[in-house]
Amino acid sequence: MSYLHRIVDNELDELIDVLPAIVLEGAKGVGKTETALQRAKTVFQLDDPAVQEIARADPRAILARPTPILLDEWQRVPSLWDAVRRAVDEGASPGSFLLTGSASPNHPPTHSGAARVVTIRIRPFTLSERHPHTEPTVSLRKLLEGGQPVIEGITEMTLTHYTEEIVRSGFPGIYHLSGRALRAQLDGYLDRIVDTDFVEMGREVRRPQLLRRWMAAYAAATATSTGYETIRDAATPGEGNKPAKSTTIPYRDVLEQLWIVDSVPAWMPTRNPITRLTRSPKHHLVDPALATRLLGLGTNALLNGSAPESPVPRDGTLLGHLFESLVTLSVRVYAQAAEASLRHLRTAGGAQEVDLIVERDDQKIIALEVKLKRNVNDNDVRNLLWLRERIGTDLIDAIVITTGPQAYRRPDGIAVVPAALLGA
């Protein structure tokens, strides 16, 4: 398959011309190596034991090859990080080193790399990247510039199409698959996490089935801020002796190190008069397709509502939460391209909630609500209007993301945008 140009390529191309060392981070399978290979002249695959031995024996010699030098899965030889840092201190030229990593190392390097090594996060394909011949009509970057631009565009994407995208996955290597082959690949991906990745991270899994159940419970909590004790209880229904926190908290920690758990932190404004905001993150896996496999659900089950009752409390349908997760994946990438951060807002008790907050460096924001519906009514925008009343001009724009066919702006100024029409 030919390489598909991605949004993150623009960010990488902008930085590689001026910075000597860049690390591409993200979960296995998101395309870090392929993206780096488009630019590298020398490649060291550090998941190969023979290459690891050479790198440990003489890291400096490794870095004396033609540049850009790709150190793939650098965390397997952490000493290379310090070698790269020293090379940068000694005047390495722009674009000298590309590092990729699918996990944070168990034993971090002696120096963080601050001011020397820049990190770029890579995630699975966004909706716009999955359909490169369909041009989005609403740019998040332009929305962040302010002025409430014209909102327009029509898409043929339907609820069925979005559900298929949730199930299909955005991992570049398997996106072209369907049916049993796709399910087998996703199952194998999850098996590797439990059987191999935890061990490689130095964590012995004494009860693999408990870990799998915890991951399934976390998947059921997608797009909620459910407490971790509730997730633990959902993973062990009917068991009188619940596993201790010391057992289940490492599950979350390792999955975060592997970039599988990809939660959205709470928005905590410092200058706006909103009080009693929750600090709990909103739960997401790196790709909602992993959630569907952990829960054993396919397109038909999600569409006809035959999914089993959730062990985790939530408002709305599981499909609605998974649709929010799909939108969140895309908005993360668009926000990163615009040098903005992503948060969520929820007041204590949940009286007001805004699904996604995109924040500029001056703390002004765009607020997004995600709705699994074609048509938007006044009730769907009430939290956005509440937020606008509270923070005034600090709210650049407010948007409802839908499964409908058309993008437009309501008389109250709220934009309505089908998920397929939102892009970077």
What count of helical segments does DSSP give?
A: 16
Find the count of extended strands (DSSP E, 2+ residues): 13
Largest sheet report: 6 strands, mixed
Number of domains: 2
Notes on the structure:
Helix content is 37%, strand content 14%. The strands form three sheets. The protein has a six-stranded mixed beta sheet with strand order 7-8-9-10-12-11, sandwiched between helices. A five-stranded parallel beta sheet has the order 2-3-4-1-5, sandwiched between helices. The chain has a two-stranded parallel ribbon with strand order 6-13. The chain is globular and about 65 Å long. Helix 1 packs parallel to helix 15, helix 8 crosses helix 15 and helix 10 packs across helix 13. The chain folds into two domains: 115 residues, Rossmann fold (3-Layer(aba) Sandwich), CATH 3.40.50.300; 297 residues, no CATH class. The protein is an alpha/beta fold. The chain contains 16 helices and 13 strands.
Brief overview, please?
The chain is an alpha/beta fold and 424 residues long.
Which characteristics define this entry?
16 helices; Rossmann fold; 424 residues; alpha/beta; 5-stranded parallel beta sheet
How does the SSE layout of this entry go?
Elements: H1 7-16, E1 21-25, H2 32-37, E2 42-45, H3 49-57, H4 59-62, E3 69-72, H5 79-89, E4 97-101, E5 118-121, H6 127-130, E6 138-139, H7 140-144, H8 159-168, H9 179-200, H10 208-220, H11 228-235, H12 245-257, H13 288-294, H14 299-303, H15 318-337, E7 341-346, E8 353-359, E9 365-370, H16 382-391, E10 395-402, E11 408-409, E12 415-418, E13 422-423
Parallel strand pairs: 1-4, 1-5, 2-3, 3-4, 6-13, 9-10, 10-12
Antiparallel strand pairs: 7-8, 8-9, 11-12
Helix pairs in contact: 1-15, 8-13, 8-15, 9-13, 10-11, 10-13
